[in-house]
């Protein structure tokens, strides 16, 4: 009797997870691209004697701030939209804090990785090579 409802619920869950995966990949790609474009700036800072830890911290902080702003806007938007869809949700409140916090933490973790690994790679580049890097 409930086959169609369960199928729709499973498909909606699958599409939700797929969209979360695509958002994570997009966020990683965008932040990694931004850090790669900043290789010249990182090279200048390293050539002037900035500690590598400070450079890494600055790059990661920039990415985390951008992600936190995006997550706050996303949470506000989801709270506004889920009130309209509340009748379609079964067993979950429209403003489920566990879901909102869980997804935000996942995206923040992806953002940390997306900033840290390219920034670490950029700090290992010879400053002369980084200064010659074309944008």
Write the layout of secondary structure elements.
Layout: H1 3-37, H2 39-47, H3 52-85, H4 97-123, H5 127-132
Helix pairs in contact: 1-4, 3-4
Structure description:
With 135 residues, the chain is an all-alpha fold. The protein has one domain. 82% of the residues lie in helices and 0% in strands.
Total DSSP E strands:
0
Distance between the termini: 60 Å
Q: Which segments are poorly predicted (pLDDT under 50) over 5 or more consecutive residues?
A: none
Mean of pLDDT: 84
Name the helix and strand elements from N-terminus to C-terminus, one letter apiece.
HHHHH
Reported for the largest beta sheet, the result is: none
What is the percent of helical residues?
over 70%
Instruction: Round the Cα radius of gyration to an integer and report it.
Output: 20 Å
Q: Can you count the helices?
A: 5
Q: Roughly what fraction of the amino acids lie in strands?
A: under 5%
Number of discrete domains? 1
Shape summary: elongated
Question: In terms of structural class, how would the helical and strand content be classed?
Answer: mainly alpha
Question: Descriptors for this entry?
Answer:
single chain, 135 residues, mainly alpha, 82% helix, elongated
Short recap of the structure:
With 135 residues, this protein is mainly alpha-helical.
């Amino acid at each position: 009797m409930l086959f169609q409802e369960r199928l729709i619920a499973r498909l909606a869950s699958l599409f939700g997870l797929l969209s979360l995966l695509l958002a994570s990949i997009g966020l990683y790609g965008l932040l990694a691209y931004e850090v790669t474009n900043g290789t010249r700036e990182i090279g200048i800072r390293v050539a002037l004697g900035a500690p590598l830890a400070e450079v890494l911290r600055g790059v990661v902080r920039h990415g985390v701030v951008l992600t936190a702003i995006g997550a706050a806007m996303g949470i506000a938007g989801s709270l506004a939209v889920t009130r309209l869809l509340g009748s379609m949700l079964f067993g979950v409140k429209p403003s489920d804090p566990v879901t909102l916090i869980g997804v935000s933490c996942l995206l923040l973790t992806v953002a940390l990785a997306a900033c840290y690994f390219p920034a670490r790679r950029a700090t290992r580049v010879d400053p002369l090579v980084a200064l010659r890097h074309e944008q």
